[in-house]
Automatic annotation (TrEMBL):
Residues of the Alpha-glycerophosphate oxidase C-terminal domain: 463-586
Protein name according to UniProt: Alpha-glycerophosphate oxidase
Cofactor section: FAD
Biological-process GO terms, alphabetical: glycerol metabolic process; glycerol-3-phosphate catabolic process
Pfam families, per the entry: DAO, DAO_C
Domain (FAD dependent oxidoreductase) ranges: 21-353
Record keywords, A-Z: FAD, Flavoprotein, Glycerol metabolism, Oxidoreductase
InterPro entries for this protein: DAO_C (IPR031656), DAO_C_sf (IPR038299), FAD-dep_OxRdtase (IPR006076), FAD/NAD-bd_sf (IPR036188), G3P_DH_FAD-dep (IPR000447)
Amino acid sequence: MSFSIKERKEMLATLQQDTMDVLIIGGGITGAGLALQTAASGLKTGLVEMQDFAEGTSSRSTKLVHGGIRYLKTFDVEVVSDTVSERAVIQGIAPHIPKADPMLLPIYDDEGTTTFDMFSVKVAMDLYDQLANVTGSEYANYTLTKEEVLEREPYIKQEGLQGAGVYLDYRNNDARLVIDNVKQAVADGALAVSKVKVTGFLYEADQIIGVKARDELSGETIEIKAHYVINTTGPWVDKIRQLNFKRAVVPQMRPTKGVHLVIDSKRLPVPQPTYFDTGKQDGRMVFAIPRENKTYFGTTDTDYTGDYTDPEITQADVDYLLEVINYRYPTANITLADIESSWVGLRPLLTDNAGSDYNGGDNGSISDRSFQKVLDTIASFKQDEATRSDVERVLKNLEMNRAEKAPSSVSRGSKLEREADGLITLAGGKITDYRKMALGALKLIVSLFEEEHQRNVTPVDSAHYPVSGGDFDATRVNEELSRLAQEGIEKGLPEEQAHYIADFYGTNAKHVFAYIDQHPLFKADLSVAEAICLRYGLDHEMVLTPADYLVRRTNHLWFQRETLDEIKHPVIEAMSEYFNWDTTQKEHYTMELQRIIDDSDLIHLKKEGN
């Protein structure tokens, strides 16, 4: 199956000609997961994403499929049970992506309010293992003494250390999970197009029957019709809902900003993911995680009201994380200069307690005065006494009653509703829940087709339907990936590179390795491994820009920063050859990539510090 710029042109044409059964707005993990399920259920599915797939929140997480053990502190057993059960499902349908990586939880007794003590952490972990069905297995929890912790992590703070608990958790490649869901959806007939921005709705009477959109590559305006339009845009959910000026829109989202910083592992050797209280008595916890010869740590959790597309890391964000990491690892002395790369993402948190409230609190509502102003302005707009700009202004300046609780306690639950205009909105949640959230939306769509179109739709069994690259025995991951790697080794790839590609692409690795027979693939000076991955991305993963490839299809920007400067220009040269870019286009993409690299490098902060 090809999934390239050629298919993009064909998909855009079909989207304009046909009426979709389902049109999904938003190509993050929620939209990608839903597209897989609707397409596999035989529904004519369209998906449009204004940026690259996963470019927003879904490539900027903590990169874990996290089990949520801290919720057991308040005996929120149902939430943990749901989370670990769903995590097991994801590992089954995408076995090449989430990988078991046990988490170390150090316990201190000198820091005031802490999440656990040695007794309560063992109780929590035993219950956690039962819920995760790993009791008695190689992944069963265990505790460490202070001496054992320090032998494992000699740089960790010794004062007050009591010991640690170790329990099962999973590392994740968030952007890869998205693209492999999208690719499977396309294989099943979905029309998925990135860099297409929805700008308005199409109506029949007062019901939404499609969207107006702009192709961000060509500038062309298009219209797409659908029986059902579904909003899965994460933090942008309210912005899409507000495109309908015919009704009052009460905001649902309260985005918070999460920042992660990456350093060389030599500066802070952390042998396994470690999860700890900040020591600041602020109710937050922070991760330090090893990955590809790097250590990254985060996250912050602060309210955010700025630009959603390009949130910025501030000095205050960096100062907070450096203070925490240097408190927890006192001899490390990590500074701004040590930071090799970084990322910042927005969490699509709900303002109310819709769905499961993972952190126990209603954390925001619109003030009565602001709510009344929305209603009055909408009424004036309908009577031609207010302009569209007036409506936009009042919606962008809502007052919220939210001072009483911290962002870290906002609901991580999800919300599914069909509004009066017919728009279906699926909001909130977290990566671990994506398939289950999509299943809820699929069930609603199936019922609507039955009730309103007298059409029976048989939903796919998504708990057992693998994503692209995941069609192998999930109980034999290491064996299967080693077998796949052998194909690359037999074609001449070094063993390390062959195993890396197999681990990264799953069964799609065989398609990547097939390009070795055609090498050299480009005139540009790229290694065989880099060339075949790039060509696979261009032909089969809708890579349209250098950033698509170097940021989201691979780990170059964040976890291979030391080689990025060497390969970025050959990658651009190869892509220029593939797309036949002129000088202006080539310069545009070169400058765009450099801006992204500079942002990740925190150049704006490092210059200010000199």
